[in-house]
Write a structure and sequence with these properties.
This protein has about 180 residues and is α/β, with parallel strands linked by helices. α1 runs parallel beside α2, α3 crosses α4 and α4 packs parallel to α5. The chain has a single domain, classed as Rossmann fold (3-Layer(aba) Sandwich), CATH 3.40.50. It has a five-stranded parallel β-sheet with strand order 3-2-1-4-5, sandwiched between helices. The protein is about 55% helix and about 10% strand.
Length: about 180
């Protein structure tokens, strides 16, 4: 059985990819690394929901709870505030940690639940995954998990998982709620 490390951005986005990968015959291990999520209380909510998901589904979960907030913010602010640029930095930071971890732990593949969200830059994620797979000599598994968008939402609601209202960083939170400005 081939082993795959699944980077998990949040429990809700993990439902469908985890199920699909299991159906495809993979031994799936989850990987949590998300220092992009702010504020810290939101980070903790999502981590706890991911832990609950792992327990409920018997998913083995590796948690990398390093939270280098200053480094994340410096990295984002060194880029332009343009969504495309800052998201690229954020994807690469998290996916690189997953690729490196997959290599160090002897996984056959790595992938990410970012490929599930219809709100993410899918082609960029795929491109970064392939680049990081080459860099760390571990296979990047690509699948367009967006086809299971509705099924994943249904599964997450059925499990009672915490469902956040924005991607994670303070910029995405501002964009999500900016329509409600006074």
């Amino acid at each position: 059985m081939k082993r795959i490390l699944l980077h998990i951005c949040c429990a809700g986005c993990a439902c469908y990819p985890y199920q699909k990968l299991k159906e495809e015959g993979f031994e799936v291990v989850g990987f949590w690394y998300n220092p992009n999520i702010q504020p810290y209380e939101e980070y903790r909510r999502r981590l706890m929901a991911t832990g609950y998901f792992a327990q409920a589904t018997s998913l083995k979960l590796i948690t990398d709870t390093d939270y280098p907030l200053k480094n994340f913010l410096k990295g984002i602010l060194a880029k332009e505030e343009a969504k495309e640029v800052r998201c690229s930095f954020c994807y690469e930071m998290r996916m690189e940690r997953a690729a490196r971890s997959a290599k160090e732990r002897g996984f056959d593949y790595f992938t990410t639940t970012l490929l599930y969200s219809k709100f993410q830059q899918h082609n960029l994620i795929k491109e970064l995954g392939e680049k990081l797979g080459e860099k760390y000599d571990v296979n990047f598994y690509y699948e367009d998990f967006r086809e299971g968008w509705k099924e994943g939402i249904t599964l997450s609601k059925k499990m009672g998982l915490y469902r956040q209202q924005y991607c994670g960083c303070i910029f995405s939170e501002k964009e999500r709620y900016s329509e409600y400005t006074l």
